[in-house]
Design a protein that fits this description.
331 residues; alpha/beta; Quinone Oxidoreductase, Chain A, domain 1; Rossmann fold; 6-stranded parallel beta sheet; 9 helices; 16 strands
Length: 331
């Protein structure tokens, strides 16, 4: 039996190519499950991998897509049976293992999380890695002592997938949220999904002294580089910064002053390798107390596998708002 998949190749001379291909379905090995996928999603990492703009894949060729949700049709693991619905995000998907841009996906059962009762496949992938990452940031910050009364949470890169969901999740958890964006035409959207204040990127003045006026209770940073460095100088005492992205660069030029004089914490958020027990807990929270109230507003559109290349280009140009879902199986 054959199925469709979006495959990414690199030639011996380093040339990138990617396209839809027909693949032959194989049975799962011991400890694996075979999933008939329903939905995936498009993340910035997927766009980098799918266009060859970033060094994401470690093995070639591979099927792209770091997110997937669907139905188990074969299981070689006692924890799952035919008909179970599961979520798979991160781990080795579209890195060292075939990913979710296919009609079928075979993965180690250890990577799968049972779909919570209050989520369907569409909602699960509307959240996907982006929603999981935002929720993991909230969880880690609150575990580190973050509370709404400490002051507003600043969210950078707020119109992206992680940013949009962070705005909505923190708002739903009782925090005042200040959203930062370079898209001046998206201020109304950010207010709709929960921002109490929206700043244009040029309005975000972070200064250059080792310590500046403390303005924010905490922050979720999707940008990195100088923005992240500036945030360390402007967070209130005992606040946390969740570091998620690197769109503005990988270097971090700051001092120890915010950490030793204000007790500021810098928390790294790695959703791909999150321990399974914590991963399951976060997905349960996303289905219950953390479920976004504006998820439908955050979903921009649903596409098919054949439309991935054009969406990748849009995303890398900064033209995408919120989340884009991929319907992988045509019923």
């Amino acid at each position: 039996m054959s199925y469709r998949a979006f495959r990414i190749h690199r030639s011996k001379t380093g040339e990138h190519s990617a396209a839809m291909e027909q693949r032959e379905l194989t049975d799962p090995a011991e400890g694996e499950i075979l999933i008939r996928t329903r939905f995936s999603s498009v993340n910035y990492k997927d766009a980098l991998a799918g266009t060859g703009s970033g060094k994401i894949l470690r093995d070639f060729p591979l099927t792209g897509g770091i997110d997937s949700c669907g139905d188990v049709i074969q299981s070689r693991d006692d924890r799952f049976k035919e008909g179970d619905q599961v979520i798979v995000t991160g781990y080795g998907l579209s890195f060292t293992h075939d990913g979710g841009y296919a009609e079928y996906l075979r993965v180690p059962a250890d990577w799968a999380v049972p779909l919570p009762d209050n989520l369907g496949p569409y909602q699960a992938m509307a959240l996907g890695t982006a929603g999981f990452t935002a929720a993991l940031a909230l969880h880690r910050m609150e575990s580190n002592g973050q509370q709404p009364e400490m002051g507003p949470i600043l969210v950078t890169g707020a119109t992206g997938g992680v940013g949009s969901l962070a705005v909505n999740l923190f708002h739903g958890a009782g925090y005042a949220v200040t959203a930062v964006t370079g898209k001046d035409d998206q201020h109304d959207y950010l207010k709709l999904i929960g921002a109490s204040q929206v700043l244009s990127r040029d309005e975000l003045q972070l200064g250059s002294h080792p310590l500046e006026k403390a303005r924010w209770g905490g922050a979720v940073d999707n940008v990195g580089g100088e923005t992240l460095a500036g945030l360390t100088r402007t967070i209130k005492p005992w606040g946390s910064i969740a570091a998620i992205g690197l769109a503005a660069g990988i270097e971090l030029n700051t001092t120890v002053m915010p950490f030793i004089l204000r007790g500021v914490s810098l928390l790294g958020i790695n959703s791909a390798d999150c321990p399974h027990a914590l991963r399951s807990k976060i997905w349960q929270r996303l289905a219950t107390d953390l479920h976004p109230k504006h998820l439908d507003d955050i979903v921009d559109r649903v596409i098919h596998l054949e439309q991935l290349p054009e969406v990748f280009d849009e995303m890398l140009k900064g033209e995408v708002r919120g989340r884009i879902l991929v319907q992988t199986m045509m019923d």
